[in-house]
């Protein structure tokens, strides 16, 4: 329990001439809050990171595809992470909160969205599906299995070893979709890994999405 | 609905605001009936110097995007 009496302190502040925060003003603010005329925030940046994401065309697209409550939050966190990329300490703070609440699996889902790969996958799923329900199933299934079926290829990955790991997974589980992501110097490795996989595994088609410094390969089981 | 920033509010004024709304503080964290208030969206105790106060049974939350998004998902885009 605080040893200070806030009423006395604020009143003392008023007596000293700091008239901005009077007891009356605070009571007025409280009343406006109770009447639902205002909410109390700490800083606008935190609110904007979320509200700007929720207003974005990207979220309005995902809003239709993702109905699961936990996945919806993680997708929004991915968009928020992207908005916080210019602020490393806030970015890491949010990553820590996501990890604490949802574990590394949840963090990877958010990272997948942050990376803009979900954008490409939704477009791909829409092109390949015959109904909105199919699209939603494809998107939510992929998000729930990001750990298994979304591979972030690194520049120092051994392409042969990586391809073999993925081939084993594909042959055992036959997922509908697998995504390989490479950025910068990892793009060349991602290209090699994808090529090797397609030589080993039949029944998968590949779609490639390339944008500034990033490449996404979506392998989709045909038939 | 107006967004009122607590950033410029002195600590004493924040404590008085909390008192007006039925809360208290142990010096660092927000309390209710003598117990630390836990942000139910991130399962963390809420600090007086980093809190949000949203309507809906007067929710006092930790100031972070996950809590904000969780609140808006539950209550709609009320602000």
Brief synopsis:
Chain A is of the alpha+beta class and 223 residues long. Chain A has helices at residues 6-15, 23-34, 44-55, 57-65, 69-83, 88-114, 117-128, 132-144, 146-149, 159-173, 187-200, and strands at residues 38-41, 150-152, 177-183, 204-211, 214-221.
**Tally of extended strands of chain A?**
5
Q: Average pLDDT across residues of chain B?
A: 95
Indicate the radius of gyration of chain A in whole angstroms: 24 Å
Q: DSSP strand (E) fraction of chain B?
A: 25-35%
- Sheet/helix structural class of chain A: alpha+beta
Q: Which of globular, elongated, flat, extended, rod-shaped describes the shape of chain A?
A: elongated
Distance between the termini of chain B: 6 Å
Largest sheet of chain A: 4 strands, mixed
The main sheet of chain A orders its strands as 2-3-5-4
Pair of chains with the largest interface and how many residues each contributes: A-B, 48 and 45 residues
Distance between the termini of chain A: 66 Å
| Helicity level of chain B | 25-40%
Q: Class by helix and strand content of chain B?
A: alpha+beta
Distinct helical segment count of chain B: 2
Strand order of the largest sheet of chain B: 2-3-4
Number-wise, the strands of chain B total 8
How would you characterize the largest beta sheet of chain B? 3 strands, antiparallel
> How many alpha or pi helices of chain A?
11
Order of helices and strands of chain B: EHEEEEEEEH
Low-confidence stretches of chain B: none
